[in-house]
Amino acid sequence: MKNVLLIGATGVFGQRLARHLAAFEDICLILTSRNINKAADLAEQIRRHGAKAHIEAVALDTTHGLLQHLKKMEPWVVIDASGPFQTADYSVPRAALSAGAHYLDLADARQYLKGFAELDAEAKAAGLTALAGASSTPALSSAVIAALTNDWVRIDCVDIAIVPGGKSDVGPAVIKAILTYVGKPVPSLSKGAYGTITAWVNSQILIVPGLGKRRIAPVETADVDLVAPYFNVQERLLFQAGLESPIEQWGIIALSHAKRLDLLGNLTGLTPLLQFARKFTRIFTGESGAMIVRATGLDKDGQSVLGEWKLIAKNGDGPNVPVMAAAAAVRALLNSRLPTGAQACVNVLSLAAIEHEMGTYDIETSISST
C-alpha cells in the first residue's frame, strides 16, 4: 500500500481532491492540516462515505521540520494543495524529493512554475517525478491544446476562458493569489509579439451556451511563458477569467484600475473582507461554470481551421475541475506512466486521462473543429 500525503487537505481544493482520491484502491491517503481536528473530521467524513483507500489524519506544519516529518511518514507521493503559490519557494518539493517521494502540486503562480525545472536534476538523480501546476493551468489547458491541434501544421491563436459558478466555494488562498496581481502588468502574446497586458482590465463579454453572458478579463497564468512557446503559437495566447456576480466582477475591475493608477498599496490585506463579502454577493448567482479553449491555425492539409473544447460543470461540481489533473497524475504514477524529473505540467498528461477523472461528476466536455 502506497502512502499518498496531501498537504492542505482541509482547504477548498484539498477537500475535493481528498474525496476523489479516497476512491483509489491500494493507497493510504494521509490528510494533513495544521489543525489536527479539522483533518480528523474530514477523514471521518470520507470514511463514512465508503472510501476504498485507507484514510489517516495527521497534523503537519510545512514551515517547521518538514523533512523530518516526511521521513517518519514515508510518503510515496506528496501533493501540495495549499497555496497561494505566488509567495511559495521550493522548500516543500525539495523536502518531498529528499524524503524519497514523488511530488505534485496545484500551483498556478507564474514565477513558481517558470522556475520549477531547477529541481529537475534532483528529481532525476533520485528517480522521482515532480510536477508543478497539475491543475486547470497549465496541465489541463495544455492538454486541451494538444488534443485540439494534434495534427495541425501551425497554431495561430489560442483563447482560454474560465468562468466558475458564482456559488462555488472560494478559499482565502485563491482570493489572495488573485490580489497579488490585480491591476499589474502580466505577460501577453498579441499580434505575434510578447509583451504585457494589465490584469483584470479591458474586459469583454463571453457567451457560453447554456450559461448565458459572462464578462471576462485577462488574468495572470504561466501559459504565455510556458504553453505558448511549447506549442509555437504564432499570433496570440490570451487567458481570461470572469466572475458570475456583477458586483464581484466590476469590483475587481475597479480595484485593477485603482492599482494601475497607483492609488492603492498591497491589496492582499483585503482578502478577509472580500471573502466575507462573498456571503452576500454569491446569493444571486448559480452553481454552473465553464472552461472554453479555442484555437485557430492550419490543419494537416494547410487549411484554416478553428478548434473548440468546451467544459460545462453543473450542480456545484466546478471546483472539482482544478484537481482532476492531480488525480490523473496520481493514477499515472500508480501505473508507472510518468517520466522522472521535475517540470511544470505542460502537455505531460493527456486530455483523455484528465477527462477520465471527471466521469463521476456533473461535468460535460465536448470538442469540435470547423
What is Rg?
Answer: 20 Å
Separate helix tally: 13
Structural class by sheet pairing and helices: alpha/beta
Overall 3D shape? globular
> How many beta strands in the DSSP annotation?
16
Biggest beta sheet summary: 7 strands, parallel
Classify the helix fraction into a percent range: 25-40%
Strand content: 25-35%
The helix/strand order is EHEHEHEHEHHEHEHEEEEHEHHEEHEHE
Please give the order of strands in the largest beta sheet.
Answer: 3-2-1-4-5-6-15
Runs with pLDDT <50, length 5+? Answer: none
Mean pLDDT: 94
Cα end-to-end separation: 47 Å
Write up what this structure looks like:
- With 370 residues, the protein is an alpha/beta fold.
- It has 13 helices and 16 strands.
- It has a 7-stranded parallel beta sheet with strand order 3-2-1-4-5-6-15, with helices on both faces. The chain has a 7-stranded mixed beta sheet with strand order 10-11-12-7-13-14-16. The protein has a two-stranded antiparallel sheet with strand order 8-9.
- The chain is globular and about 55 Å long.
